Amino acid sequence: MRELKFNLGDKAVDNITGLKGTITSILFSITGCTRYMLETSDSTGRPLEWWLDEDRLVKLS
């Protein structure tokens, strides 16, 4: 297994859509792709969850 670029609880942004949130899950695909679940909420407070490829994410400070 290779080293992870992000850890659970890290804040990140999707460099394509601009979606910002917290990484809450990590998925290791059989194809070798590592995906992260980014969680945020909409304007009403309803949670939103997105699975994104590692290369799309940028860690926020």
Radius of gyration: 12 Å
Largest beta-sheet characterization: 5 strands, antiparallel
Enumerate the strands of the largest sheet in spatial order, edge to edge or round the barrel.
4-3-2-1-5
Whole-number average pLDDT? 94
Count every beta strand, where a strand is a DSSP E run of 2 or more residues: 5
Q: Into which percent range does the helicity of residues fall?
A: under 10%
Low-confidence stretches: none
Number of helices: 0
Order of helices and strands: EEEEE
Strand residue percentage = over 45%
Separation of the first and last Cα atoms: 26 Å
Q: Write down the overall geometry.
A: globular
Structural classification: mainly beta
Q: Number of domains in the coordinates?
A: 1
